Amino acid sequence: MNKPHLSFTQVVNMNVGFLGIQFSFGLQQANMSPIYQMLGADGKDLPYLWLAGPITGLLVQPLIGAMSDRTTHRWGRRTPYFLIGALLCSLGLLAMPFSPALWFAAGLLWILDAANNVTMEPYRAYVSDRLRPEQHASGFLTQASFTGLAQTLAYLTPSLLVFFGMNKDALGANGIPVVTTLAFVIGALLSFTTVWWSIRKVPELPLPAEEVARLRALPHGFVPALVEIWAALREMPPTMRRLWWMALCQWYGMMCYWIYIVPTLAATMFGTDDPKSSGFRDAALLNGQVGGFYNAVAFVAAFAMVPFTKRLGAKWVHAFALACAAAGMWALPGITDKAWLFLPMVGIGLAWGSIMGNPYVLLAGSIPPERAGVYMGIFNMFIVIPMLIQAVTLPLFYDSLLGGRPENVIRLAGVLLAVAAVCVLRVRPAQS
Fold first, then answer.
1. Which of 12, 53, 153, 309 sits between 20 and 30 A of 104, alpha carbons compared?
2. DSSP category for residue 6
3. Which residues of the chain have a pLDDT value below 50?
C-alpha cells in the first residue's frame, strides 16, 4: 500500500488519543496502591492486587491484535476496537473511586485494564499501519510524548485541585479523598473524547480491494485468532526475540517503582507507615507532584530524542535513558529533602519517554506489515509477563531479602533498570 507522508500536525493529531489512554494508566499508577491501602490492603499484598493489568494485557492484547489484523469493518481495521475500549474505560474510571470495598476495587481494575488494552493494542498497530517506515521514529516518539503529557496531568490533577481550593483531607464515604474521585471523573471524560478526536482527524487508510478480499477469505473468530498468535510466536523475528531480556528487567523494575513509590515517600519524607494517616495522604500528593514532573520530562524528552534516535539508533538512546533512571532510583530512597527529590525524577523521566517509544521503533522495523496487530499484541506480552513475574515473586522475598521495607524495593528497581540497559545494547536492529 502506498502510504502518504504525514505532516507534523497529522502525526500529532493521530496520537492525541494516547492522551486519554495514558491519562487512565497514569491515574492507576499514581492512585491504585493508595486506594487499595485506604480500603484495607497490606503492603506485602499490593503486587497481587495489581495483577489485573498484566493478566488482562497478556490475554487481551494479542487476541485483539490478531482479530484487528483480519477486520474489514467499514470504519476500519482498528477503529472499532478504539471506540469500544475507550467507552468501557470511561465507565470503569467513573466507578473506581466509588468502590465500597477492597474486593470491588480489585475486580473493577480487571474491567478497566481489559478495556484499556482493547484500545491500546490496535493503537500501536494503527501508527505502524498509517506511517511510512521513515516516519516510525516520529510517530512512536510522539506517542511517547503524549504518554508523558497525559501522565503528567494525571499525576498532578489531585495537587492542582488542592491548589485551587479543594480540601486534601475531605474524604468520601469509603475513605478515598474527594480530589482523587474528581481526578478519575476527569479521566473518564478524556478517555473517549481524545480517541474520537484522533480517528476523526486522521482516519485509517482504506484497504485495497484485493487486500479486503484476502482478509475476508481468512477464517475469523476466537479460535483462528489463537492459531494466528501461535504461528506468529513460532515465526517471531530475531530482533523481537532479543528484546525480551531488556523487557523482563525493564518492566519488573518499573512495576516495583509504581507499586512502592507512595509507601517509600511516606516513610522517607513523612516518617509514617500508616496508610490512614495524614502523612500518607501527603505522600500520595507528593507522588503526584514528582510523578507529574518525571512525566513532563518524558513529554519533552520523547520529542527531543527523535533526531538522536534517527542518527544514533534507538538502542543506544534507550540504553542511556535506562542508565539514568537506574541511578535515579537507587538514589531516591536516601533523599529526605523534597527539593532534591526532583533530581532523580529527571532520569526516570528520560527512561519513561524512551520506554514508550524507542523499543517500538526497534520492533516496527522488524515485523511484517500484514502482522502488525498480532506482533504489537505479542510485544505487549513482553511487558505483562515481567509484571506477572514481579507480582508473583516479589512477595516471596519482600520480608526476607528486602526487610519488609518499600525503600529497598525502589533500590531493586534501580538495579534491574541498569541490567535492562546492558541487555538492550545486545539487540541487533533488523536494518543493520
1. 153
2. P
3. 432
Q: CB neighbours of 176 closer than 8 A, spacing ≥ 6?
A: 35, 38, 39, 97, 99
Torsion of CA 410, 321, 282, 21, to 10 degrees: -110
Residue with grid cell 529526605, as numbered in its chain: 336
Sign of CA dihedral 181, 185, 188, 190: negative
Cβ-Cβ contacts under 8 Å for 411 (sequence gap 6 or more): 329, 330, 333
> pLDDT tens-digit profile of 34-62?
888 888 887 777 777 877 777 877 777 77
Cα–Cα distance for residue pair 325/352, rounded to 1 Å: 9
Is residue 15 a contact partner of residue 198, using CB atoms and an 8 Å limit?
Answer: yes
pLDDT at 309: 85
pLDDT at residue 432 in the model: 41
CB 127 within 8 A of CB 139: yes
Give the whole-angstrom CA distance, residue 89 versus residue 74: 23
Tell me how crowded residue 73 is: count the other CB atoms within 10 A of its CB: 12
